[in-house]
Amino acid sequence: QAQLVESGGGSVQAGGSLKLSCEVAPGYLFSGCGMAWFRQAPGKERDLVSSISSDAIITTYVDAVKGRFTISRDNAKKSLFLQMNSLKLDDTGLYYCAACKYGGPNDYHYFGQGTQVTVSS
Description:
The chain is mostly beta strands. The chain is built from no helices and eleven strands.
């Protein structure tokens, strides 16, 4: 059973919006963990897009998405979200939810299976 399950991906035209969701599986509790969204573009490595602290006070974004993406979480509902606005072609990729940061910026214990986002012109 996957600990993290992403949803909300799809195909959208440039300039459009999508909201990704990540649900934590029953029996798992990540409210005390930092969480994040990663993105893997075709032919490239998986890279961090945005992160959020366990208390949602601290958020980080890569420069490419600042001002367009918003990360949030609802610990009561065991969910993580990524609101993506003004989507660009370069935002295309497989988006992964991650939980429980343990080391460097890209070091997380758990990853979901990913949800595909395709932005077209």
